From TrEMBL:
Keyword Phosphoprotein attributed: no
Gene3D superfamilies registered for this protein in UniProt: 3.60.21.10
Domain Calcineurin-like phosphoesterase, residue spans: 3-97
Record's keyword terms, sorted: Exonuclease, Hydrolase, Nuclease
Stated family: Belongs to the SbcD family.
UniProt-recorded Gene Ontology molecular function terms: exonuclease activity
Protein name: Nuclease SbcCD subunit D
Region (Disordered): 359-407
Pfam families reported for this sequence: Metallophos (PF00149)
Amino acid sequence: MVRFLHTADWQIGMTRRFLTAEAQARFSAARVDVVHRIGRLARQQDCAFVIVCGDVFEHDQLTPQTVRRTLEALRTVEVPVYLLPGNHDHLGPMSVWSTPLMAEELLDHVHVLDRPGVHAVAPGVELVAVPWHGKHPQSDLVAPVLAGMDVPPAGTVRVLAAHGPTDLLDADGRHRAAIPVAPLREALSAGRLHYVALGDRHSRTEVGDPAIWYAGAPEPTAWREERPGDVLVVEVDTPPAAEGRTQVRVTPHRVATWSFLTLDRRVDSESDLDALDSELGALPDKDRTVVRLGLRGTLGLAQHARLEELLGRHEDLLGALDRPARHNDVVLAGDDDIVDLGLGGFLATAVEDIRAMAGGVPGDRSTPAAGTTEEFELEGRPGGRDGGAVRGVAFTPGEPDDAASAQDALTLLYRLARGGSR
């Protein structure tokens, strides 16, 4: 039996636009720290090696510090580590793998699978590597490697390491290089392969066969990921001399320290605000929890001011509190709160004008106006720039003079007049 650890999509060097500079620094450190935990798990599970199936790094424009810290983390892994270039860190003249720093400081027990085909990595163990040599291949990279591949010598375990989407999970067929699953299953049934280790999908996923797996990202990167944060310990029984299947056992192990959480709540009363406050307050590991919050409902001005205050308080504790405008529809109702402030003079006149404007339909902020501080990031498939969104704020200078900005102005005025802060 051969036991090894399958992981992928470390995405070291990743940045997220919804994180503050302080949170980004901790998020970046976590992506290196998880390598230490993977190494300890490999030792505890008596794994023969670790295979990282692509996207070790987020991109090629990395600082020397990032690369050196990654190599230092890999130094603590006590078994051989095999790194497969993926779409984010593909091979090429400008690749991170081609830098003098990598050539000079790469560790003896860390190997880059930069040549497609079979690699004999230990007695009785072969890795079949399918590295990326460009960011946008136009055809399946696995098929040429599998073509003409015979059954390995008796007693040899053969593992395919590849990166990219599969046809079973590419329903719209938009990826020209999608990996067909049927030929992989045929190779497994014929004994030409014994396990298929995949990277690119950040959610741990079995793909049409008990011996074909995405390990997922060991630290999550976005809300849309369903089962991130794991690595897989894989056991493959020594295959029989004859052709055919061998027994494979796959066990996930949790290694993540960060989490992404989506909350969609209705707020219409003080009790709703109490419940939201308690729910956010009860979250564990707040500094490593990124919350995407969608709110809808109708609140008075005082309640709206309280909502902004409590969200600001929790935002200070969380890794991030993301409030996409397209997921927020909280309407102000009633005039009593602003009347109770007893404002006079020109301020009272201005308040009347703002109240008249705020009585309209809340504006659509799905697209920011020039001069706003809202931040955007395109959403895409796992392994791409997924999970980005608008970072909501209570009041944004530069917004159009519409009902939504008028409501924000009233809320801010109320909080300031009551002695609160923005």
